[in-house]
Amino acid sequence: MFQIRIHGRGGQGVVTGAEMLSVAAFIEGRHAQAFPSFGSERTGAPVVAFCRIADKEIRLREPIQDPDCLIVQDPTLLKVIDVFAGLRKDGYLLVNTSKTFEDLHIAQVAGSLPRGHAVIVPATELALKHVGRPVPNAALLGAFAALSGLVHLGSVKQAIERAFPGKIGAANVAAATEAYELVMAQEDSLKV
């Protein structure tokens, strides 16, 4: 079973992102579950969502304490809460930012993970470019597909299109595709 914890703020599509990721897994014939954890339910408040993906039925229902992957949709949370709590030593880290890990003061955490397991993606910038709104969830799902290899980009695209039919879905697919390509380019540069 692969467990993903997504940290963000209300209004960034954290819960919808976890749901779309679970749908992408279902499309590939796998089992998945997605659910949120709210504090105060208002725009800007910290939100955590969880997603589990497995090849057999998932019976767990509790929040994910030891994630295999951590997705940080809002890097301002790095100063507010311990988003890294429980991240596995061989886990994956995906941060929505145009800054470096050094700029964010998390280079030590990123460097402690296996090579190629920690990436940054300017998902909010991609969302603004393609969707016209600062909602980074779809872009981060494309980046997740490239980073982890757990789901295919095609499945992510289908999940996004199911959640957002029409022009909005197409715009989110474009953001996810560009994020996927950015992460793949980062991984290719590590191989050189």
Word description of this protein:
With 192 residues, this protein is α/β, with parallel strands linked by helices. It has a single domain (2-191), classed as Pyruvate-ferredoxin oxidoreductase, PFOR, domain III (Pyruvate-ferredoxin Oxidoreductase, domain 3), CATH 3.40.920. Helix content is 40%, strand content 20%. It is built from six helices and six strands; from the N terminus they run E-H-E-E-E-E-H-E-H-H-H-H. It has helices spanning 14-27, 107-112, 123-130, 137-148, 153-163, 167-191, and strands at residues 2-9, 31-38, 46-54, 69-72, 92-96, 118-121. It has a six-stranded mixed β-sheet with strand order 2-3-1-4-5-6, covered by helices on one side. Strand 2 (31-38) and strand 3 form a beta hairpin. Helix 4 (137-148) runs antiparallel to helix 5 (153-163) and helix 5 (153-163) packs antiparallel against helix 6 (167-191). The longest helix has 25 residues, at 167-191. The chain is globular and about 40 Å long. It starts with a strand and ends with a helix.
